[in-house]
Amino acid sequence: MASKHWIAGVLAAAVLGVGAWVYSGAGQSAAPQSTFVLLDGSQRTTADFKGKVTLVNFWATSCTTCVGEMPEVINTYQKYKDRGFDTLAVAMSYDPPSYVVNFVESRKLPFKVALDNTGQVAKAWGDVQLTPSTFIVNKRGEIVKSYVGAPDFAELHKLIEKLLAEPATV
């Protein structure tokens, strides 16, 4: 019985240690070099994120959680866009482009939307398969937080405000 408690203690310490490591920022990594093809045919790259705090959201029109969180994603964009914040919604490869265009137009999405027709962008960002998957990229182009499922938007707003207050270079 004592060995079960010892193992549980070691596991708890490991989880707390990893959590502290990620929270401390030691887990920050450069956002993958990617080219995003926007609905209008233009392109953006990860390099375009530099100097801004960017929310990258992988989503699909068939994902009820994605559709449900979209008003909060819009509100977040509207709240911070004039302070150096940007949003890029990346539609998954299995989402028919006509559905994406219809969704963007009917919901009047105010931010950039990309089609990941080949799935290469999702693969580059950690082989994203679950939607919604959201990444927060700081002004230096580093991923500082990721969410699978809808984020806690109050927590997300605190993080965005903290990141917007940071200098672009350290």
> Major beta sheet, specifics?
8 strands, mixed
Compute the number of helices: 5
Overall average residue pLDDT: 87
Q: Beta-strand level of the residues, as a percent range?
A: 15-25%
Helix content: 40-55%
Oligomeric state of this protein: single chain
What's the count of strands? 8
Q: Strand pairing plus helix content: what structural class? A: alpha+beta
Question: Termini distance?
Answer: 50 Å
Order of helices and strands: HEEEEHEHEHEEH
What's the arrangement of strands in the largest beta sheet? 1-8-7-4-5-6-2-3
Query: Which stretches are poorly predicted, pLDDT < 50 over at least 5 residues?
Result: 2-26
- Quick one: overall form? globular
Radius of gyration: 18 Å
SSE map:
Elements: H1 2-23, E1 29-30, E2 35-38, E3 43-45, E4 53-59, H2 64-80, E5 85-91, H3 97-107, E6 112-115, H4 120-124, E7 133-137, E8 142-148, H5 153-165
Parallel strand pairs: 4-5, 5-6
Antiparallel strand pairs: 1-8, 2-3, 2-6, 4-7, 7-8
Short account of what is shown:
Helix content is 40%, strand content 23%. The chain contains five helices and eight strands, in the order H-E-E-E-E-H-E-H-E-H-E-E-H.
